[in-house]
């Protein structure tokens, strides 16, 4: 059976991968029949109505789903398709209360024209009461027009007539309203690096967060990803090289760890395990498959250079005793750090994931790239990880990508010939060790000179 999914008109490169991830998570066999990044409508093939309702209930970037009764480029084609698909079902809806609406995307119809469209479906013989509020069934005629954005991007000619028309029976809406609950504007503890609530939820979805799973963020910060994964039922924990990120300042942790306030706010404290000080190269986690998912947005090293725990020369520091207590046991201790390369960071995250993800566990990693670079930074790859999807969020003069990986079972390997083979530059300065930092700062400097 075919269904029509109405998607949010934002984060276009994320929409299809998120829908596929939800289908994978729920064990739903889904085939995408028609998808266009310039339109919010996607036609999918699903087993039944139960699968359709389950799929949409978990999605963040979808709005609702309809049982597709017909489609066509003209009303003549639409009516013919409706007859072919659903004529045997019309009798089931003769006596139900119903509402019929015309929904135009990037176009409009007069009231008189809408009335004409309603009357053209008289053959459905809907004899029940028309009820605009809480009807038993909702039918929608959807007209999809070409937008200015699509015309400017790929040259598709705009028209006063829709390019596609659908008739659908509305089934259910998505979980998209949860974005308003999780918005950072209302969150008790955030930082300058807190991930947008919508994208945090999408990231958790694409990493397949669910009850009974353990998720980890090695760059936890204020815990945006952990909150999102916990919302979907996963047990979560995280680490950060700077404990102040999750503990908060002195006045913010009067009632314990500052980040914990967010879990209390959303009543998901039982989903939070703990947070601790470490990085991906120095972690107390065992080298064994114990994580179902890793979700992270590593530092890009733009404002200040990347660092990891350790000393610059690699020598072991002798313990310092203060008042009979080792310095690293004292309150407020900040461990030493050394410069770290951008390429090494990505390699170490992949290696960290390979060692600790269960088979088919997922790594969701955000990484930057230059928008107008002649040759983009290749996607980091590892022979034990399969790249599931790469989604792009563009900004003015740079972009960032969400890369989803699957931990392959033992004995399976992926093709890494197209992946990253680059290493960090020589030197010890932040610029020496971070090609993206250099490109980002040089581009900003050039733009400033032009002004």
From TrEMBL:
GO annotations of cellular component type: cytoplasm; tRNA methyltransferase complex
Transmembrane segments: none
PROSITE patterns in UniProt: N6_MTASE, SAM_MT_TRM11
Keyword annotations from UniProtKB, A to Z: Cytoplasm, Methyltransferase, RNA-binding, S-adenosyl-L-methionine, Transferase, tRNA processing, tRNA-binding
SUPFAM superfamilies: S-adenosyl-L-methionine-dependent methyltransferases (SSF53335)
Residue span(s) of domain Ribosomal RNA large subunit methyltransferase K/L-like methyltransferase: 186-303
BP GO annotations: methylation; tRNA processing
Domain tRNA (guanine(10)-N(2))-methyltransferase TRMT11 N-terminal: 1-176
Homology family: Belongs to the class I-like SAM-binding methyltransferase superfamily. TRM11 methyltransferase family.
Protein name: tRNA (guanine(10)-N(2))-methyltransferase
Classification lineage: Eukaryota, Fungi, Dikarya, Ascomycota, Pezizomycotina
């Amino acid at each position: 059976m075919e269904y029509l999914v109405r998607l949010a008109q934002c984060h276009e490169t994320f929409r299809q991968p998120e829908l596929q991830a939800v289908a994978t998570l729920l064990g739903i066999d889904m085939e995408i029949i028609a998808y266009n990044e310039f339109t919010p409508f996607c036609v999918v093939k699903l087993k039944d109505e139960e699968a359709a309702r389950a799929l949409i209930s978990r999605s963040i970037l979808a709005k609702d789903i309809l049982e597709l009764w017909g489609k066509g480029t003209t009303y003549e084609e639409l009516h013919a398709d409706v007859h072919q698909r659903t004529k045997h079902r019309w009798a089931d809806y003769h006596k139900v209360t119903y509402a019929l609406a015309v929904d135009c995307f990037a176009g409009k119809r007069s009231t008189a024209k809408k009335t004409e469209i309603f009357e053209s479906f008289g053959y459905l013989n809907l004899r029940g009461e028309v009820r605009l509020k809480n009807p038993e069934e909702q039918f929608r005629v959807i007209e999809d027009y070409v937008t200015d954005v699509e015309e400017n991007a790929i040259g598709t000619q705009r028209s006063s007539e829709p390019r596609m028309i659908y008739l659908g029976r509305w089934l259910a809406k998505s979980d998209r309203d949860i974005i308003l609950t999780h918005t950072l504007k209302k969150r008790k503890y955030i930082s300058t690096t807190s991930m947008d609530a919508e994208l945090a939820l999408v990231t958790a979805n694409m990493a397949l967060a669910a009850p009974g799973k353990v998720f980890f963020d090695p760059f936890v910060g204020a815990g945006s990803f952990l909150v999102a994964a916990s919302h979907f039922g996963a047990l979560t924990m995280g680490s950060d090289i700077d404990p102040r990120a999750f503990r908060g300042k002195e006045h913010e942790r009067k009632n314990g760890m500052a980040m914990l306030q967010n879990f209390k706010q959303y009543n998901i404290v039982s989903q939070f395990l703990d947070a601790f000080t470490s990085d991906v190269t120095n972690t107390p986690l065992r080298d064994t498959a114990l994580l179902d998912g890793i979700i992270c947005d590593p530092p890009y090293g733009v404002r200040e250079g990347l660092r990891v725990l350790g000393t610059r020369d690699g020598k072991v520091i002798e313990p310092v005793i203060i008042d009979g207590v080792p310095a690293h046991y004292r309150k407020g201790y900040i461990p030493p750090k050394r410069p770290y390369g951008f390429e090494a960071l990505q390699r170490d995250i992949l290696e960290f994931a390979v060692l600790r993800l269960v088979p088919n566990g997922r790594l969701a990693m955000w990484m930057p790239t230059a928008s107008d670079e002649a040759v983009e930074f290749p996607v980091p790859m590892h022979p034990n990880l399969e790249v599931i999807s790469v989604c792009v969020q563009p900004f003015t003069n740079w972009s960032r990508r969400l890369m989803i990986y699957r931990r392959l079972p033992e004995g399976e390997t992926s093709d890494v010939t197209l992946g990253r083979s680059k290493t960090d530059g020589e030197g010890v300065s932040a610029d020496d060790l971070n090609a993206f930092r250099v490109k980002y700062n040089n581009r900003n400097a050039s733009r400033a000179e032009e002004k």
